[in-house]
Amino acid sequence: xxxxxxxxxxxxxxxxxxxxxxxxxxxxxxxxxxxxxxxxxxxxxxxxxxxxxxxxxxxxxxxxxxxxxxxxxxxxxxxxxxxxxxxxxxxxxxxxxxxxx
Length: 101
Ligand code: HEC
Fold this sequence. Notes:
The model has no long low-confidence stretch (mean pLDDT 84). It is globular, with a radius of gyration of 14 Å. It has 101 residues and is mainly alpha-helical. The chain has helices at 2-23, 29-34, 38-41, 58-70, 77-83, 87-97. It has a domain at 28-97: Cytochrome c-like domain (Cytochrome Bc1 Complex, Chain D, domain 2). Residues 36-37, 39-41, 50-51, 53, 61, 64-65, 74-75, 77-78, 81, 93 line the site of heme C.
């Protein structure tokens, strides 16, 4: 598991570096972290898909994610996703999602 996480980190760094080399501006970290959510919640958190995330406050999204992470809420799909992130990463992606109209 830790190998996988480390490998993912290397890939994310490599992607970040190549993008910043090309476009001179790195993608917002929050969007990069949240892009994992687009498969189910729609691109940039806007449907079609499960519940729309765009338009919610950062505090609301973060609270939901912490509840999923604890395993006390949801049917298990979101728990697995929420567990993959640190608190700092959850805050970062929640605050980015909250900027989406
Ligand atoms: C494999 C599909 C899938 C992915 C990927 C996914 N989600 Fe979800 N999400 C769901 C489902 C299904 C629900 C409904 C809650 C439940 O019953 O567990 C949900 C519910 C939620 C809710 C609660 C919404 C509400 O209105 O109550 C939030 C917030 C949320 N997801 C955020 C995220 C974030 C942020 C990510 C990326 C880190 C993400 N999800 C990735 C499937 C997914």
